[in-house]
């Protein structure tokens, strides 16, 4: 009898060593991709001198100055004037006075952030709604020229959207859509709807028709069947599509710069303008970026389960 | 409960005719099996009755009312799908209650009726489970529950046992028939399995390439097949066909097969000379040393209670179902004796059965 020890291993299940190596690679990759994010966050809690010091400071005294500068506009005053003021009413007040300045009023950051929320979520909602309905139609009905229409829808993605910036700029000026939230919502919807149709058609094609037929037999109209049976099963696809649309609309910069300047301006074109206000205020820019990242992070975490759950066809055998 | 009447129903997809001019009536409380070999527009008839497909021409009456173009949701018909189509995002209770919800029935009553149905199907213990974890048989019962809970006018079932394994299928065949005996719902059941059809149905409609070849009770279909197609499709092993060339006259009581006279049921019509086939069920053959028709044993298949012996004769290979007591050696010569009352004669060109006293009183399609 030989005393060679054999380790039982399955062909499908990776061995513990393979698992450990794979895990290490994933963790390493995650760390590398998170360095810029960490850097942005750290910069946002540095003081302006710390933020531009060379070599960069890893150890420093955190301060809220960046956030104070982000949320306020300030005016420079003489030390005598500041001395004469009553005691500071907030932390920001105190920090600002330390730099020989007083708070003049709130900055435009929150209104711009609000515009971004409205425009990104509004256009995502529209693109996903229209995309779901169109995808359902293409998936279930005999649409005349369906293939050509689908190709046309896809073809709108075949050039960079910015290629049509000038015609859109002129059109928007003509129709009074420049610098309006409605204009931006329509624009982002138009860009995203093609992606939504194609992504969702794939998901809806995967849902067997029997479910709707069963619902119609059970006494529901087609629309009710769509609402009660198809939609709940398409949630995974809808969530994934919504995240893609939202990330595009949230991050879009070029059209936002071109078409918005005042009341409808979104956060991406606003954040760089912070730099100009009294020197290169990197902590304030980093603070604006940090806060800007929060909604997309929350949205992704909320829909994480839907994304990961995958497509399950519980009761139908394939 | 009610009667389904199909008149000249026809369905064409482009050039392909799925259902050709079918007419039949399913009487109140009757269990009809649509026996269709795999392929050819198997479930189209069922889908037209349900309203999931519109016919090219023809009419569908439900309880005397023309519902040909009514929406599926307006027909009050239940449909059990081949793959069950249980809603994966609902648990068992909500699946069964879903048809009641559409009728705006009060929550308490839905609850009561779902529980009553679940008890009937013996699935009341899994009501709060998710449907995705259920075994095949339980899914089947949930699908049935969803169908019977609202007491529809009739049930349509599309090969509901097709995905179950053989052993369990047998159990479900009995359960389905038992359920039918209890609730007496008019049922149309599509299957390609002759055993299911024979075991459950009151009536069977045998379809071939969209045409109904024969409509009758299982006994009629088996004992008095209207065509060679039906005779060949039903029974395992199927009916033997022994070919001969002859004309027939009304009143003849025998035919000549391979030079030997064979007694047959009294022929009821005149037929011009042509290729004919004598149809013999395997169990209507007896081995007899005196019989003039002889052949060599070609193979045998032991089945426990009996055995199937294949015999090579001048008119082709004939399979006989005989007692398992005796064993045969290959090449052994045996004589074949037929039960003269049970023989059928077919016209090979058209495949139809020749009228004879065997068919007296039978419904011919």
UniProtKB/TrEMBL annotation, chain A:
Keyword Lipid metabolism: no
Main location: membrane
GO terms classed as biological process: transmembrane transport
Localization per record: Cell membrane
Topological relation to the membrane, as annotated: Multi-pass membrane protein
InterPro entries: BP-dep_ABC_trans_perm, MetI-like, MetI-like_sf
Keyword terms of this UniProt record: Cell membrane, Membrane, Transmembrane, Transmembrane helix, Transport
Keyword check for Manganese: no
Entries under Pfam families matching the protein: BPD_transp_1
Regions crossing the membrane: 21-42, 117-138, 150-172, 184-204, 225-250, 282-303
Domain ABC transmembrane type-1: 113-303
UniProt xrefs under PANTHER family: ABC TRANSPORTER PERMEASE PROTEIN (PTHR32243:SF52), MALTOSE TRANSPORT SYSTEM PERMEASE-RELATED (PTHR32243)
Similarity section: Belongs to the binding-protein-dependent transport system permease family.
Protein name: ABC transporter permease subunit
Taxonomic source organism: Rhizobium fredii (Sinorhizobium fredii)
TrEMBL record, chain B:
Keyword line: ATP-binding, Cell membrane, Membrane, Nucleotide-binding, Translocase, Transport
Transmembrane domains' residue ranges: none
Record InterPro entries: AAA+_ATPase, ABC_transporter-like_ATP-bd, ABC_transporter-like_CS, ABC_transpr_MalK/UgpC-like, Mo/tungstate-bd_C_term_dom, NA-bd_OB-fold, P-loop_NTPase, Transp-assoc_OB_typ2
Localization terms from the record: Cell inner membrane
CC per GO annotation: ATP-binding cassette (ABC) transporter complex, substrate-binding subunit-containing
Membrane topology value: Peripheral membrane protein
Record's keyword annotation contains Membrane: yes
UniProt GO MF annotations: ABC-type transporter activity; ATP binding; ATP hydrolysis activity
Residues of the ABC transporter domain: 4-234
UniProt similarity note: Belongs to the ABC transporter superfamily.
Protein name: ATP-binding cassette domain-containing protein
């Amino acid at each position: 009898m030989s005393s060679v020890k054999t380790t039982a291993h399955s062909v499908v299940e990776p061995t513990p060593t393979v698992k450990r190596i794979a895990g290490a690679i994933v963790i390493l990759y995650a760390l590398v991709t998170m360095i810029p994010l960490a850097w942005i966050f750290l910069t946002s809690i540095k003081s302006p001198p710390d933020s531009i010091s060379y070599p960069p400071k890893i150890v420093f005294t955190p301060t809220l100055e960046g956030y104070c500068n982000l949320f306020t506009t300030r005016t420079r005053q003489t030390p005598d004037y500041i001395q004469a003021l009553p005691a500071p009413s907030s932390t920001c007040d105190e920090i600002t006075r330390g730099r020989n300045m007083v708070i003049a009023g709130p900055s435009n950051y929150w209104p711009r952030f609000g515009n971004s929320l409205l425009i990104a979520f509004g256009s995502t909602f529209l693109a996903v709604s229209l995309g779901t309905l169109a995808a359902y139609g293409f998936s279930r009905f005999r649409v005349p020229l369906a293939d050509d229409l689908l190709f046309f829808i896809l073809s709108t993605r075949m050039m960079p959207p910015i290629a049509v910036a000038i015609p859109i700029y002129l059109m928007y000026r003509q129709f009074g859509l420049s610098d309006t939230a409605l204009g931006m919502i329509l624009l982002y919807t138009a860009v995203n709807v093609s992606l939504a149709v194609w992504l969702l058609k794939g998901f809806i094609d995967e849902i067997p028709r029997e479910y709707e037929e069963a619902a119609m037999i059970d006494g529901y109209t087609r629309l009710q069947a769509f609402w009660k049976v198809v939609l709940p099963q398409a949630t995974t696809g809808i969530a994934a599509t919504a995240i893609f649309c939202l990330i595009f609309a949230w991050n879009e910069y070029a059209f936002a710069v071109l078409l918005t300047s005042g009341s409808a301006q979104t956060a991406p074109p606003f954040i760089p303008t912070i730099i100009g206000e009294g020197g290169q205020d990197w902590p304030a820019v980093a603070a604006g970026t940090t806060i800007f990242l929060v909604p997309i992070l929350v949205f992704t975490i909320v829909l994480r389960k839907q994304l990961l759950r995958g497509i399950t066809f519980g009761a139908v055998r394939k | 409960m009610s009667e389904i009447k199909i008149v000249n129903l026809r369905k064409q997809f482009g050039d392909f005719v799925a259902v050709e001019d079918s007419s039949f009536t399913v009487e109140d409380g009757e269990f009809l099996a649509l026996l269709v070999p795999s392929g050819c527009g198997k479930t189209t008839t069922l889908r037209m009755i349900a309203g999931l497909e519109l016919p090219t021409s023809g009419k569908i009456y439900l309880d005397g009312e023309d519902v040909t173009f009514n929406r599926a949701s307006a027909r009050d018909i239940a449909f059990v799908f081949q793959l069950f189509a249980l809603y994966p995002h609902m648990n068992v209770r909500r699946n069964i209650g879903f048809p009641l919800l559409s009728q705006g029935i009060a929550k308490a009553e839905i609850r009561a009726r779902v529980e009553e149905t679940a008890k009937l199907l013996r699935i009341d213990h899994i009501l709060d489970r998710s449907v995705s974890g259920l075994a095949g048989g339980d899914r089947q019962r949930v699908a049935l529950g969803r169908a019977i809970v609202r007491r529809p006018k009739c049930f349509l079932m599309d090969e509901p046992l097709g995905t179950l394994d053989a052993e369990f299928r047998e159990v479900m065949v009995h359960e389905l028939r038992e359920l039918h005996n209890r609730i007496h719902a008019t049922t149309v059941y599509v299957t390609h399995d002759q055993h299911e059809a024979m075991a459950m149905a009151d009536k069977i409609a045998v379809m071939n390439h969209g045409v109904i070849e024969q409509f009758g009770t299982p006994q009629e279909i088996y004992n008095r097949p209207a065509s060679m197609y039906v005779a060949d499709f039903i029974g395992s092993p199927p009916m033997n066909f022994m070919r001969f060339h002859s004309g027939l006259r009304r009143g003849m009581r025998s035919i000549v097969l391979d030079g030997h006279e064979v007694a047959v049921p009294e022929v009821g019509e005149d037929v011009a000379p042509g290729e004919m086939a004598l149809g013999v069920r395997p169990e209507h053959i007896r081995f007899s040393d005196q019989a003039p028709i002889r052949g060599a044993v070609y193979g045998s298949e032991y089945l426990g209670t009996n055995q199937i012996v294949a015999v090579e004769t001048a008119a082709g290979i004939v399979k006989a179902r005989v007692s398992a007591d005796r064993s045969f050696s290959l090449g052994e010569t045996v004589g074949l004796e037929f039960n003269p009352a049970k023989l059928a004669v077919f016209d090979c060109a058209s495949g139809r059965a020749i009228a004879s006293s065997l068919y007296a009183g039978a419904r011919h399609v």
